[in-house]
Amino acid sequence: MQQLLESAARRSAEGRPPRVLLAGPVAQVTMDAITGPGCRLTVEGEFFPELPLAYPDGRFDLILGLDVLDLLADGGARAQAAEWARVLAPGGTLYLVARREASQVPPLVRIDVHPDGALAIHPLGPRHPLVQPRQNREFEVLVRPLVVHEISLRRDGLREILCRK
To answer: Best label site of 83, 101, 124, 157, fewest CB within 10 Å?
Structure first.
């Protein structure tokens, strides 16, 4: 995440502020971390954005999906990922934060992004009936036609998944 924020700051300094779509439960600290480098931020709902998304094809340079796909059944997750792929600009990046195992993180969480790129997890409530942790290969299939560029496993039970268009 830190590298994405640094890249956004460089683009903004060059006069090309990135257009960012943020999906998931959002806190002010996350919005500040993203707009701080000069990004143009659009916030899309809480857990379940209404589909299809009301944006033209190729609108965003970066999409952040924070704890969204784990709360959707397979069909809903595929539809969400397809919409993200549609509104992502060529050469754009989809950054996902997802669970590794249901037992390792609270069932409903808000993931905050801090200005230094660090992630903080905050429990939001009881277990959601649709929590569906997926294997790495399942994410690769979900996000097609995007390409999974990197998957980082974290000690707190989350994965950071970086996809490119």
So the answer is: 101
Dihedral sign for Cα 137, 141, 147, 152, please: negative
The answer to whether the CB of 24 falls within 8 A of the CB of 68 is: yes
Burial of residue 103 (number of CB atoms within 10 Å: 0-12, 13-18, 19+): exposed
Work out whether strand 147-153 and strand 119-125 pair parallel, antiparallel, or are unpaired.
unpaired
pLDDT at 130: 65
pLDDT digit string, tens, across residues 42-62? 998 666 778 999 999 999 999
The domain in which residue 33 lies consists of 2-164
Q: How far is CA 140 from CA 82, 99, 155, 162, in A?
A: 12, 15, 21, 10
The count of domains in the chain is 1
Task: Give me the residue label for tokens 């299939």.
Answer: 141
CATH number of the domain at 28, please. 3.40.50.150
| CA gap 115, 37 in Å, rounded | 9
More confident residue, 106 or 135: 135
Report how far residue 16's alpha carbon sits from residue 141's, in angstroms, rounded to the nearest whole number: 32
